[in-house]
Design goal:
The complex is a heterodimer. By secondary structure, chain A is mostly helical. Chain A has helices at residues 3-13, 15-34, 41-66, 74-91, 96-121, 125-144, 154-161, 175-201, 209-232, 238-256, 258-268, 270-275, 280-306, 317-327, 339-358, 363-390, and strands at residues 163-164, 236-237. In chain A, helix 3 (41-66) packs parallel to helix 10 (238-256), helix 3 packs antiparallel against helix 13 and helix 14 runs parallel beside helix 16. Chain B folds into two domains: 4-243, Rossmann fold, CATH 3.40.50.300; 249-343 and 430-436 and 462-513, Rossmann fold, CATH 3.40.50.300. Chain B has helices at residues 44-52, 76-81, 99-103, 118-131, 147-160, 177-192, 204-210, 235-243, 304-311, 336-341, 351-355, 362-366, 371-374, 382-395, 412-425, 442-457, 469-475, 498-505, and strands at 4-15, 18-29, 33-37, 61-66, 69-70, 84-87, 165-169, 196-200, 213-218, 221-227, 261-271, 279-289, 293-298, 318-326, 329-331, 344-347, 375-376, 379-380, 430-434, 461-466, 478-483, 486-492. In chain B, strands 6-7-8-3-9-10 form a six-stranded mixed sheet, sandwiched between helices. Chain B has a six-stranded mixed sheet with strand order 16-19-20-13-21-22, with helices on both faces. A four-stranded antiparallel sheet of chain B has the order 2-1-4-5, with helices on one face. The chains are: A mainly alpha, B alpha/beta.
Chain lengths: 392, 513
């Protein structure tokens, strides 16, 4: 296969994925053109910090959506888990890890609770999590006595605000950051190569070698440039490390584990999954427990970043997370979606918010723009699907 | 031919990969009751959907002449406006709405300010209910009525549209004898009032009782139209017309090598999943041996699929009783995963709804039930999965550009091969294949039969459920007949005739043994 034909093949087969990548690049290009500081080291760091908790939520949410459900309660759960952590650390004065542990336990319990109703009682997730949204918000007020609790300070504060910097020294840039990213890029290249070799061994179509090399080089260059920007600024944010681990783990779980397969099977055709021996209830239960866990992680990151817990924390987070999934190519009907897609969807929203904030665009315009982007992304999907069906 | 209210000429309708109707001709005289007969899948329902505009003009070829004028219906509404009303097999009533609301659904008479005058609607509904002899109030919710009464509401609904040609698709399939009797009586009355009826039915005694003429359809073609007053028009003649096919060379050769008993089912009784008092399968017992293909013959609604699915990890029904033995030992099949673990497989009759994940590729559909074989500690070996999928694509000749092709885009025959691959890969010992060749063309059918032969040659036991009698006679060693939830007979395929099977399959309850 020639490079051009191969390129066309990839573009048409993965129109959705490539479309979203192109949109992302276009948006970044637009803002870097409109505002000189957009691509500055400090601002790039900010984007990561500002939106990390939405991305964490979107990881869990995309799994929920692939299985054909929805979770409206995660915003309230972020508030509740943050409030519990604050109670433990700020009010009771216990060590930071006790706060983290307490938040995760509460998140898991909330997940067990919702999973029970969805999976074993059979109530639609929309209803269960709508109830959860009210329930967890109420509990947050109860825990906090309707007032804010701050500051955390210390190690807990460092979770979302700290950086790995200067571990290996450097002149005006952090060598450690560059090293970590260098390892990541090499790891990516190696795994991509092994995948390609595996596919070749099984006589599957792969992209042409020059194109493959070009892809690795472009991705590597963009990532290393990003790393260089971070290294020039404050170094490697702790949150980014956490996020990277979560993305890698959950990408593997969704793409390579039996559990992940079952999630796609349930969302693709529930009846067929059931008749293929998938334990639908157990899988659905696990999906919501996992969502509770990830909501607690997001709650920890958010409360740490805010250096305290507020009764109104996390409002509308669920909608941002859901929007990230749909912009990233998940289907409302279930069965389709990827963790990486949801991450790019989330980043598109992050970049847009951040860019518009830098430009001093009014809050109202920001909301309108976000709404339109979500609508257009899904409309693009529907249009594609119709075209594909017509071409059959 | 001015006495023909309807003439359908040269109707041909194709679905991707299948010719459902081929040059079908149907003439219905004004004021008659015209029955349409044929096996499941012969094309009866498709023909009626063409007539009523479900498949709009342009999606088929041929000509429809209604009341002397060529009709080109673009939708159901268009045909209803002309007075053609179809009552489908699955009733199309909204359970939570009242009788009157259902009767006027989509056809609401608006009064002042565009609002519905419910007093008027209810009184009109009451009049219609009286006409069909249903003693219920118009405000009663549909869900409180039994199936028989719901059928009458459907007819009342048709009457409200000033119907000239009423089409009933298997109207008595779900009714008990009393309700059926009542319905047939009503049809006679309506007929006397000048309404022409087309009735699709499997129940030959009903047809003999009520129809003026009968058209027989087979394999998407019209075979003949016979006058029921003619003494030569016996049930035997209809059966012959329905099944009469050349059996030569349509089935691959096989020398049976039958071994030990593989599966034995005793006294299997299944109740309806929601109507718990209704018995769907009653006291069914059967056996399958190693290397044997056993057929289950039965008409629609006989309980074939229900029997199979209830066995397969209780995927259907409630209050299931009976015993299952595999190789002489009793086994329990409480869930699908238990059934799979005990070496059972069930390939569904409705592969799109129950068999496949249509938005997923061939590879992952094939591995869906046997994922455990590909996984270690919960992680799937993707390369091995590809290899397996490739093997099955080659072995079963699945025609697709690659195993990464999306299953929804394959033809019916290739989709069925994916379903079979999925179950063969689970290493099942007993494979229950429910209508394995439904909706696929003749060439692919032959391939499916070859696959079945290879499975039994490998010592597996295969149960084939089919409405196509030649298929059962051509592939099976032994055939059980099922009628109204009971096993009515067991015949060796050798020497059995379609007429004999059809007789057993239409055996009424009283005589069923």
């Amino acid at each position: 296969m020639t490079a051009i034909a191969s390129l066309r093949e990839i573009a048409t087969r993965n129109l959705r994925q490539s479309g979203i990548m192109i949109a992302f690049v276009a948006i970044v290009a637009l803002f870097s053109f409109l505002h000189p500081n957009f691509l500055s080291p400090g601002n790039l760091t900010n984007i990561v910090l500002q939106y990390s908790y939405i991305l964490i939520l979107a990881i869990g949410m995309v799994i929920v959506i692939i299985a054909g459900h929805i979770d409206l309660s995660v915003g309230s759960l972020v508030a509740l888990t943050g409030a519990v952590a604050a109670t433990v650390v700020v009010r009771e004065g216990m060590p930071w890890w006790m706060g983290v542990l307490a938040a995760i336990v509460v998140g898991l319990i909330a997940g067990l609770w919702q999973g029970f109703w969805v999976a074993f009682v059979g109530i639609p997730a929309f209803i269960v999590t709508l109830a959860g949204m009210l329930l967890f918000r109420g509990l947050t007020w109860l825990v906090l006595d309707s007032i804010s609790l701050s500051p955390f300070g210390g190690t807990y504060y460092q979770i979302a605000n700290g950086f790995q910097n200067g571990l290996l020294g450097g002149y005006g840039y952090d060598v450690f950051t560059l090293l970590i990213f260098g390892i990541a890029v090499v790891g990516y290249a190696v795994s991509a190569w092994r995948n390609r070799q595996g596919a070749l061994r099984y006589q599957q179509a792969v992209e042409a070698l020059p194109l493959f090399v070009l892809r690795i080089v472009v991705v590597g260059a963009v990532v290393m440039w990003f790393a260089y920007q971070l290294a020039q600024s404050r170094g490697l944010p702790n949150v980014l490390i956490l996020l990277a681990i979560l993305i890698i783990v959950y990408s593997l779980v969704t793409q390579r584990s039996v559990f992940g397969r079952h999630v796609y099977a349930i969302g693709g055709n529930l009846n067929a999954a059931q008749l293929s021996g998938v334990k639908v209830r157990k899988v659905n239960f696990a999906i919501f427990v996992n969502m509770g866990f990830l909501a607690s992680v997001a709650g920890i990151v958010f409360s740490s970043r805010m250096n305290g817990a507020q009764p109104g924390a996390g409002e509308m987070f669920e909608l941002d997370a859901i929007a990230a999934c749909f912009i990233g190519g998940a289907a409302v009907t279930g069965g389709v979606g990827r963790v990486t897609g949801a991450m790019i969807g989330g980043l598109i929203m992050a970049v847009m918010s951040n860019g518009m904030q830098l430009m001093g665009v009014d809050q109202s315009v920001q909301q309108v723009t976000k709404g339109l982007v979500l609508l257009l992304a899904v409309a693009f999907d529907v249009f594609n699907k119709r075209r594909a069906a017509g071409g059959r | 031919m001015s006495d023909n209210i309807l003439e359908m000429r040269g109707i041909t309708k194709t679905f991707p990969g299948v010719k459902a109707l081929q040059d079908v001709t149907l003439e219905v005289r004004r004021g008659e009751i015209h029955a349409i007969c044929g096996e499941n899948g012969a094309g009866k329902s498709t023909l009626m959907k063409v007539l009523s505009g479900v498949y709009p003009h342009g999606t088929y070829t041929g000509e429809i002449v209604f009341e002397g004028q060529e009709a080109r219906f673009g939708s159901i509404n268009a045909s209803e406006d002309r007075g053609i009303v179809i009552i489908h097999q699955e009733l199309a009533l909204v359970p939570y709405l009242s009788v009157a609301e259902n009767i006027f659904l989509g056809n609401e008479t608006r009064g002042r300010a565009g609002l519905i005058d419910w007093h008027k609607a209810n009184s009109e509904a009451a009049a219609l209910l009286e006409r069909v002899g249903l003693a219920e109030l118009p405000v009663t919710p549909i869900s409180q009525l039994g199936v028989g009464k719901q059928q009458l509401v459907e007819i009342a609904k048709a009457l409200s549209k000033e119907v000239k040609l009423l089409i009933l698709d298997e109207p008595t399939a779900a009714l008990n004898d009393n309700d059926s009797e009542h319905l047939l009586e009503l049809l006679r009355q309506l007929n006397a009032q000048g309404i022409t009826c087309i009735m699709i039915s499997h129940k030959l005694n009903e047809i003999a009782e009520i129809a003026d003429r009968t058209t027989i359809i087979r394999d998407g073609r019209t075979i003949e139209t016979i006058d029921m007053k003619d003494p030569a028009s016996t049930q035997d003649r209809i059966i012959r017309g329905m099944v009469g096919r050349d059996l030569e060379h349509r089935f691959p050769e096989r020398t049976p090598q039958i071994g030990e008993e593989m599966l034995r089912v005793e006294g299997w009784t299944v109740h309806h999943p929601t109507q718990h008092e209704r018995v769907v399968v009653e006291d069914a017992s059967f056996t399958v041996r190693e290397g044997e293909v056993v057929g289950i013959a039965g008409l629609m609604g006989a309980g074939r699929t229900e029997l199979a699915m209830s066995l397969f990890g209780r995927s259907y029904g409630s209050n299931i009783t009976g015993r299952v033995y595999k190789r002489g030992e009793e086994i329990r099949l409480r869930s699908v995963s238990e059934a799979i673990a005990h070496g059972l497989a069930y390939a569904t009759e409705d592969r799109k709804r129950y068999g496949l994940n249509l938005i997923e590729d061939i590879r992952r559909n094939i591995s869906a039930a046997g994922l455990g074989k590909l996984a270690r500690r919960g992680w799937v070996n993707g390369n091995e999965e590809l290899k397996v999928a490739e093997e099955y694509r080659r072995d079963l000749n699945i025609k697709a550009p690659s195993v990464l092709s999306v299953v929804g885009k394959l033809s019916g025959g290739n989709q069925q091969k994916v379903v079979l691959s999925k179950w063969i890969y689970t290493d099942a010992d007993v494979l229950i294949l429910d209508e394995p060749t439904r909706g696929i063309d003749v060439g692919a059918k032959y391939e499916i039969y070859t696959i079945i032969n290879r499975m039994v040659a490998a010592g597996k036991a295969v149960v084939v459920i089919s409405s196509e009698l030649p298929e059962l006679l051509g592939t099976c060693d032994r055939i059980y007949t099922l009628a109204f939830g009971r096993i009515t007979g067991e015949v060796p395929a050798e020497g059995a005739t379609q007429e004999r099977l059809m007789e057993l399959m239409t055996m009424e309850k009283e005589t069923a043994r």
